[in-house]
């Protein structure tokens, strides 16, 4: 009788567990210098420190096969370099890219595993609002911050869930 009860309990548990289909990590570049041309703007000293602190927090949490996709802008390249991991530069997610273009580059929600996007505002805020409707329109993703979104699958339906938001000042 006990074995039957345990088996039924485990069956119910397994039915209710959500499977993580994909993780999308949106990382806005850290603080950058003002100036022109926009693509050449570099991180300030504060920005380099922000990128290092966030990278130190993020790197041990990333799975070994995480894909990292970075805008070609100098400030995003410098932000991503703080991770000390290989990354792909994709012009499709550069300044002014649409939320749709960035999600396509990440292959959301169909990619397996974890994808890190190092990009720009307002696009990252638009993505957060699109995926998580409770996020207010016009949300500003702070410089250097990470928004970690999980695509959880339950009963064959994909549901974006906000997992973590981290700002450099929190670290």
UniProtKB/TrEMBL annotation:
Molecular functions (GO terms): protein histidine phosphatase activity
CDD domains linked to this entry: HP (cd07040)
Example of a GO cellular component annotation carried by this entry: cytoplasm
InterPro entries with a match to the protein in the record: His_Pase_superF_clade-1, His_PPase_superfam, SixA
Protein name: Phosphohistidine phosphatase, SixA
